[in-house]
Design a protein that fits this description.
Structural class: mainly alpha
Order of helices and strands: HHHHHHHHHH
Low-confidence stretches: 127-136
Number of helices: 10
Mean pLDDT: 80
Helix content: over 70%
Oligomer: single chain
Strand content: under 5%
């Protein structure tokens, strides 16, 4: 496998992009929208860039997860169900990526981001409305959340840009309100989704390792400090930051799609 345009300036760019991406994923999601284009800019083809980006961003998630471990407060049945479907969906998405082009998902991505943004903004109002409260511990809600998370995980294994944000929106719609608790579960589900996807990409030799190693270092640094400092901010600030990221991602991909 050739190593396109791997120079010191490109390595510095990839490190910085991965650090920013890792920090974004720790707080709101959307880190791939920074790291993935950086790989394309430095000459890595789309499919290997996607695989390389997944390896790097997954590492960043593992480093940010430690900061949120005390905020992981969810029932055992919910936890096991959502993690299980995340792993299964991630593998399916990774295998699809290696067999099909990515442009199909890119076409629906703006609409996915728009729905996710609206869910995140208005979800708390919906769950506080009498008669429309969704109990995340109920069997019906658990099945619905698991089905939705499976689809998100397939998307995450396939491309993954904005996956964390969509998970936050789903958790909001299903009754969670504490942004730190949501981030803790989001990191676990994202990590589960891309964990086996990373194994698939490595086994299929789809990763450009010099670029990946540089980005792993950047993502780990960004993920750790992003998670650490976000916990020191008021919850309302973090929530508004997540909304700003969602609006920005939605606008960007609608413009790009046209």
């Amino acid at each position: 496998m050739s190593l396109p345009y791997f120079s010191l300036p490109n390595a510095a760019l990839l490190f910085l992009a991965a650090a920013l991406g890792g920090a974004l994923n720790a707080v709101a999601g959307g880190g791939s929208f920074v790291a993935f284009p950086a790989l394309l800019f430095t000459g890595v083809p789309a499919i290997p860039a996607n695989a390389t980006n997944t390896v790097a961003m997954w590492t960043g998630l593992t480093f940010s997860g430690g900061a949120f471990r005390q905020h992981l407060k969810v029932g055992r049945a919910v936890f096991i169900s959502l993690v299980s479907v995340s792993i299964a969906g991630g593998v399916v998405g990774a295998l699809l990526l290696l067999r099909t082009p990515a442009h199909t998902f890119l076409r629906i991505l703006p609409w996915l981001m728009l729905v996710a943004t609206l869910l995140f903004i208005f979800g708390p109002r919906l769950t506080r409305t009498p008669g429309r409260v969704v109990d995340s511990q109920s069997t019906r809600a658990l099945i619905a959340a698991s089905c939705f998370q499976f689809l998100v995980a397939v998307y995450g294994g396939y491309f993954g840009g904005g996956m964390g944000f969509v998970i936050l929106a789903m958790l909001t719609a299903f009754g969670m309100a504490d942004i730190h608790e949501m981030n803790a579960l989001k990191i676990v589900l994202s990590g589960a989704t891309n964990g086996l996807a990373v194994v698939v990409f490595i086994a299929k030799q789809a990763v450009y390792w010099p670029q990946a190693l540089v980005m792993v270092c950047g993502a780990a640094l960004g993920g750790y400090f992003g998670a650490h400092y976000s916990l020191q901010l008021p919850r309302a600030w973090v929530r508004w930051f997540v909304i700003a990221v969602g609006v920005g991602m939605t606008a960007y991909f609608f413009v790009r799609a046209h």
